[in-house]
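Weekly modeling sync, notes
Attendees: S.R. (lead), two postdocs, one rotation student

Agenda item 3: backlog of single-chain predictions. S.R. asked that every request posted to the team notebook include the full sequence so nobody has to chase files. The rotation student volunteered to paste the first one in as an example of the format we agreed on. Action items at the bottom.

Example entry:
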Amino acid sequence: MCNSKIFPSSFSQRSLLLSILFSLFFLLFSCLQARIAIYGDTRSNPDIHKQIVKQIATFKPEAIFHTGDLNSSGKNQKEYDTFFQIISPLTQFGEFYPARGNHEKDLSLFLKNFPYLNGSSYYTVMYDSIRFIILDSVLDLSPTSEQYCWLHEQLQEKIPSLLILHHPVFSSGEHSDELGLQLFLPELLQQSSVKVVFSAHDHNYERSEYNNITYIVTGGGGAPLREIYSHNPYSLVFSKQHHYIIAEREGPLINFKVYALSGDIIDTFLIGGF
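Predicted structure, as returned to the notebook:
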């Protein structure tokens, strides 16, 4: 009788332990497999955009981030209807999060088409314990602006973060740093937990490094491609190709791979601290 009482209890404890271990393994495996896609500047050429979406869809990303300039003018609903039709193969896998570009001229129409942004074109998203901070660089972002103060407040929380905005901070492209973001944004980010800054506006791919933060220009989603135009002393990789980025979580690391439409890998880099 004694054994018959102890055995079920012991069996139950082992079962519970195995269940916990299995759950932890499942969570770890899920974490390792988590994927996101990042791309932008899809205006002007829907055929290229369709090709990029088709390739991204093969990775089945769980979240998709767009670095802005979804459409050519952003002033009429028909453009948005076409845009949503093109990205429909992606939205079956995950949520779509846009940054507003300078071609999204009508802010109210932009917000109307993304009601889950709750009326704000700058916002945060938590995904897989990573914070994504999306800014609206078409609005005032100077140190006295409401958006800057909002960003400053967000950065007080030391959560590993990726920052997304349309206008680049460091770029060899035609637009370079036309907003003067270098004057204040790198300093603000320096003491934060932001690891990578993604932008577009210049229609190419570029990776720069400044004060241990990676700055990416990913503006190869369909808009006309551009050559190197200005000097960027922090540039490490530049490519004039249509492209997209796939990021995969690998424990505390995120592995970023940049793919050209040919399927070739343009660039790859690892960022830790997640």
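Discussion: group reviewed the output briefly. The longest strand covers residues 243-250.
Action items: rotation student to repeat for the remaining queue; S.R. to check formatting next week.
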